[in-house]
């Protein structure tokens, strides 16, 4: 990019040269600063990635010096998918268990709340009133 700016500066008139050159120098300076920052962040990220592979005890494939992000994240994806499936199964089992407990509690409450009707006695009030009608 710097060489392109120099080419344009050589060919341009003095009237147009100054604003262009000033803006491009600012742009190039800012771009170099951003590039240095991103390079530092990339190095830091690479270091963290290597620490992550050591933490999870992931070894590189045969013939590779370092483990590739693709390899690590494919293993991670499989683990996360399996974990998610197991999580769903466990939640279903817990919900079934809670439902059974609630149904049992409801059944017991219903049995307690039910009352029994005694048969009519010939000498009872209901029997006597029934005879009069």
TrEMBL record:
Gene3D superfamilies, sorted: Formin, FH2 domain
Domain FH2: 1-109
InterPro entries: FH2_Formin, FH2_Formin_sf
Keywords on record: Coiled coil
Record SUPFAM superfamilies: Formin homology 2 domain (FH2 domain)
Domain of life: Eukaryota
Residue stretches in coiled coil: 84-112
Keyword Isomerase: no
Pfam families found in the cross-reference section: FH2
Protein name: Formin 2b
Lineage, uppermost ranks: Eukaryota, Metazoa, Chordata, Craniata, Vertebrata
């Amino acid at each position: 990019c710097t060489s392109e700016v120099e080419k344009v500066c050589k060919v341009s008139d003095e009237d147009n040269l100054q604003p262009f050159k000033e803006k491009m120098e600012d742009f190039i300076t800012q771009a170099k600063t951003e590039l240095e920052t991103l390079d530092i962040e990339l190095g830091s990220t690479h270091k963290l990635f290597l620490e992550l592979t050591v933490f999870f005890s992931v070894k590189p494939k045969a013939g590779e010096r370092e483990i590739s992000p693709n390899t690590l994240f494919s293993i991670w994806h499989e683990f996360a998918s399996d974990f998610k499936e197991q999580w769903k199964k466990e939640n279903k089992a817990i919900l079934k268990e809670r439902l059974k407990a609630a149904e049992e509690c409801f059944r017991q409450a219903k049995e307690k709340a039910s009352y029994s009707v005694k048969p009519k006695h010939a000498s009872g009030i209901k029997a006597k009133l029934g005879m009069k009608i």
